[in-house]
Structure formats: C-alpha cells, structure tokens
Fold:
Amino acid sequence: MNSQGTWRQLLSLGGASLLGIGAAGGLPIQARAQDPQDLPRPVITSVSSIVPKGTQTIVIRGIGFGHAEPFNGKSSYFRLTDVTQRNWMAGWASFSTAAIPVIVSKWTETEMVIEGFQDYGWDGGGVKHAFEVGDVVKIEVANPKGPRLPGPNPDEHSESVGVFSVRVSAAATTAPTPAPGADGDTGVDTRVDAASCAGCMVSLSLAPSVVASGRTVMVYGVVQDESGSPASRAEVELTATVAGAAVPPTTITAHTDGTFGVPFKAPRSASVVTFRARLAGAPRSASVTATLKVAPN
Structure:
C-alpha cells in the first residue's frame, strides 16, 4: 500500500497526474498553484434536509468547494433557488436578480453550513421568499478561486459549478457527520476494514467526463455496504491507465459519508484515460471503472 505521504507530491506520467491527497484521506490538496480556469469542477454529494423555516441548519457536503470566510449576506459563488416558488433565490450576489441574504457559518473544500436566511417570508411588496413542503430547491456552488456563478438561465450553465437539487421536507433529519481531520473537524473514527466490508460496493464517477488536454478533473465516488448505507472511512485503491501505461495506484480513505475524491490532471495530448477503483486490501473484491476522454486543446 502506498503511504498517504507519497501522494502529497505531484505524481506525473507523460503529462498526466493524480494530485496529492491530504493525510485526512480523500481530501484533495493543491500541490501547486493552478490557473483559476483549471480548477476541478465542484461536486455536491449530499445535502441535509431543508424545512419551511427561516432559521435552520443546512449541511452541504462534497468536493472542490474551495474556501471562504463565514458571512451573513450574499456571494457570487453560491446560489439557492426555490424552483417551485417562482424561482426565488437566496445567497447570490447579482445586480440583476434580487436574492435574500444567507448566514453561512462554514465554507471549506468539502463542506458548507448554512444557519438560516435573512428577510425570510413575505416582504412588504407581497413577494414570497419562503419554502413549502414538497418544493424543489436547487443549490449551486462554485470555487471562490475560480469563475463566478453564471446567470440562472440553463443556457448559461458552467462546468465550474456543482449542482444538487432536494425537496423540502416537513421535519429536519440529522445532519451528516463531519469528515475526520477536515479543517479541524473531529468526526468519529469508524474505519471499515476489508474483512468487515467484504460485501461493500464502490461506485466511480468523473466531473466532467470529457476534458481538454492539460486540464484538471475530479475523480470521485462512494462506498456503500450491502444495505446501501455509507461505508464510513473505507479505504479505496484507485489506479489510472493512460495510453496503456499505468499511473501507480493510490489508496484513498473515504469520508464518514462514504464519499471520496481526488483531482487528476489530464495528459497534454488527446487520449483516453481509464480509472479503476476497488476496496483496498481485498484483491478479490469487484472493481469499477470510469473513462475520461481527453480532447485536443
């Protein structure tokens, strides 16, 4: 098994590379400065329940969110839209669209926490800014080091934005447990070993699946047990094959919600990259693959 420390260095093969992952496991770090246009696309993997209240805690988990200081107001890199209630918005800083302020207590690479909304309800002009049970709410996040959110028009959607939709529920459920070691979070160490996770399943995805040569994509996935529940902190072995040559494998520790991810820098020429993931320490476990198409620049 390769040590986590080995993967803190940039590993290259013909211009392709898996960027280092932090000691917390599965947490991507930047091994070098990147062009803002070259940042991996944010991926939202889960959102805790949203209820019809102005004061509530909403936890957004994923990969590639970047970092921002807590704030009470609006941002050019976050937008919450109630698609059902005439597309009223919260949190988005725009001169052309009115949006109510949000209270953001945490914004890290893997987690955002919203504590509520200012001006929630009906305003003096009879405009509604409130959730109802069953409403569809769309959440969009962009990395503050990259391009700002585009307009809400679907034709303006950008590959630098993570998107997740959820329905408003009548009652709140327990928020996800923080990932151990991520930005000071302690979490709970319930590591799953290969023996106790013999029936676990690994899924693998890419964001995006087609990329220009030399750009960076996010390779991410989820580990679940036989019942479909997250396999907390399971270890996954990830390999990549570029034009028939294999990048040495790395072992990634999934978060407490079963998710994992690592950035990958595409080769400088057009090619096809095949990623393969399986449960680490279990050579007979089923593996899954995902294919990245690298187009000429």
